[in-house]
Amino acid sequence: MDTIIAIRSRRSVRKYLNKEISKEILEDIVDCGRLAPSGYNEQPWIFVVVVDREMKEKVAEATTSGKFIRDAGACIAVFCKKTAETALEDASAATENMIISAQAYGLGTCWINVYKKSHSPKIKEILNCPEDMELMTLIAIGYPAEEPKTPPKKSLNEVLRWNKF
Ligand SMILES: Cc1cc2nc3c(=O)[nH]c(=O)nc-3n(C[C@H](O)[C@H](O)[C@H](O)COP(=O)(O)O)c2cc1C
């Protein structure tokens, strides 16, 4: 799929078909994530791909707004070194790369709020997160079982300025 089409057509998907995602596709999605830009090229990330049903259920249960992970083919948790100066930007760049590449594979995704939230320690514990790493983002991925609605988006005119405010 053309990149621009993938970006334009992506919407968050929260309902998934009961269909496995191949290891090859998941690996390629993570490969697109690890090629993202990062501050000082530190690449401070580790990507944990959860496909095991029980593990997915545990992660889903631990979230406050991602219970639908239970029905997703996989979820990917992005961890970064706590010491990385631009960890949040790095993780976000990698996350968006993975979201767009998943879209190109005909998969639906939803970013789930896990950065320094009250439920984050539980997810870190489930996934065996080492002490020196932080949980940055979590993405649910699966073959879509819904045609997601386009939420209201600001128009280009509302958000674009040329040269100065
Ligand atoms: C940082 C971040 C955190 C998000 N957290 C959640 C979440 O916890 N649960 C959820 O259902 N959607 C979550 N979303 C998805 C947003 O709700 C969604 O991107 C937004 O409504 C725009 O819709 P769209 O993705 O279809 O364009 C999150 C998105 C971002 C970028």
CATH topology category name: NADH Oxidase
Under CATH at level 1, the class stands as: Alpha Beta
Instruction: Please tell me the overall pLDDT.
Output: 97
User: Structural class of the helix and strand makeup?
Assistant: alpha+beta
Catalogue the ligands: flavin mononucleotide
Please compute the radius of gyration using only Cα atoms.
Answer: 16 Å
Query: Got a strand count?
Result: 4
How does CATH name the architecture? 3-Layer(aba) Sandwich
> Ranges with pLDDT <50 over ≥5 residues?
none
Largest sheet: 4 strands, antiparallel
Beginning-to-end CA distance, first to last residue? 35 Å
Q: Which strand-content bin applies to the residues? A: 15-25%
Name the CATH homologous superfamily.
NADH Oxidase
As a percent range, the share of helical residues equals 25-40%
Shape: globular
Number of domains: 1
Helix-strand sequence = HHEHEHEHEH
Number of helices: 6
